[in-house]
Design brief:
Blueprint lengths: L1 H5 L12 E5 L11 H13 L8 E8 L9 E10 L3 E10 L2 E11 L24 H5 L5 H8 L3 E5 L9 H6 L3 E8 L7 H12 L5 H6 L10 E11 L9 E11 L2 E10 L4 E12 L6
Helix pairs in contact: 2-6
């Protein structure tokens, strides 16, 4: 399913204003398009207008409107600059003639330079020892739970207990940290552009859960409303999304009905392959006590 979603219609044509591509959404219980899908498809659209030897290294985008999963999405790519080492692209995702997402992405030719990274946290259990989403949600008689359990293109495994439902531990701990292992449920071709687009897709899954954990809020909190507002991502090193990746997330701040989530993504060898930051709307029906 993931490869079908990232296989956009259209070819780069170096038009005066925009290169045009079209994407689709999977059938799902909710009519609203998953934000990570639009991120991943935008990365594919932008990548098709850049030389293959320049992988994407960063993006900064805003979610402007909810997407309708029953309608196609049009992606317009504007070629902002092609320099000696870097290329820049602006991508607008449209539905009904209005942008639902706007982002700028930067691409870079390989280069040598100084290197360092924040180390991978120690003592993390192996993903094979942790339950999958299907193990946790497969027994829940709810269309959305069944969709998350069996239809998502990524296997997501929580290091801490997941926050789908209220638990005594969630209510007691209030820690602004969330850690998951993830990888695609099937193999991916040897195309770094696709792997980076797929990682953008997955980066939106759980990034705001560290904010919810800090306040003891499960996803099933009555009246809870959460929506992604903006998203920034940096790819530091080559990555394979069909191999296990550790996504370490923290929330440094929440205020004004907004929560900030940050994340570091490591491969199993401990290499930091990407960093993520996202602010999201977090609203409750009543102010917290």
């Amino acid at each position: 399913m993931l490869l079908d979603l990232l296989d956009l219609d259209g070819e780069p044509e170096a038009r005066t204003e925009e290169d045009i591509f079209t994407g689709r959404s999977p059938i799902q219980p909710r009519q609203r398009v998953f934000g990570g899908q639009v991120l991943g498809q935008s990365v594919v659209a932008a990548s098709r207008t850049v030389s293959g030897d320049r992988p994407i290294h960063s993006l900064h985008g805003y979610f402007l409107r909810p997407g309708d999963a029953l309608k196609p999405i049009t992606f317009g790519v504007q070629r902002l600059r092609d320099g000696r080492s870097f290329s820049a692209r602006r991508v607008h995702a449209y539905q009904n003639g209005e942008p639902i997402m706007s982002l700028i992405a930067s691409f870079q030719a390989p280069a040598e330079g100084i290197e360092h990274q924040e180390p991978m946290p120690p003592g993390i259990p192996d993903p094979e020892t942790l339950p999958s989403s299907a193990d946790i949600l497969g027994r829940v008689d709810d269309p959305l739970a069944q969709d998350w359990a069996y239809n998502r293109p990524f296997d997501v495994r929580y290091v801490e207990p997941p926050i789908y439902f209220p638990t005594p531990e969630l209510a007691r701990q209030h820690t602004a940290r969330n850690t998951v292992w993830l990888k695609t449920t099937g193999p991916m071709p040897d195309d770094q552009a696709l792997h980076r687009a797929a990682l953008a897709y997955a980066s939106d899954y759980t990034i705001l859960e560290s904010t919810l954990r800090r306040h003891g809020l499960p996803w099933t909190t009555p009246g809870l409303s959460v929506a992604s507002l903006d998203h920034a991502m940096w790819w530091h090193r080559p990555v394979r999304v069909d191999e296990w990746l550790l996504y370490v997330q923290t929330s440094p701040s929440a205020s004004g009905a907004r929560g900030l989530g940050t994340g570091r993504i490591y491969n199993r060898a401990g290499d930091l392959v990407a960093s993520v930051a996202q602010e999201g709307m977090v609203r409750l029906p009543h102010p917290p006590a």
